[in-house]
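Project standup — Tuesday

K.O.: blocked on the structure for the chain from last sprint. Re-posting the sequence here as requested.
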Amino acid sequence: MTGFDWLGAIGLLLVIEGVLPFAAPVVWRDGFRRVLELSDGQLRFIGAASMLGGVFLLMMLN
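H.V.: unblocked you, prediction finished:
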């Protein structure tokens, strides 16, 4: 994977991350408030599940 591939992946991530705050800021803000109320263990589980999902997706693409 080249440096341009990584930059493209980061750019795509930023676009995807920006869609909800742009399209529905009230919904995004409410969701963010709910995330702030989660415990550390819940946040770690969500982070681990997200990382595993990303690794699985990358494995499927290669």
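K.O.: great, moving the ticket to review. DSSP finds three helices and no strands in the chain. Residues 41 and 47 are 10 Å apart (CA to CA).
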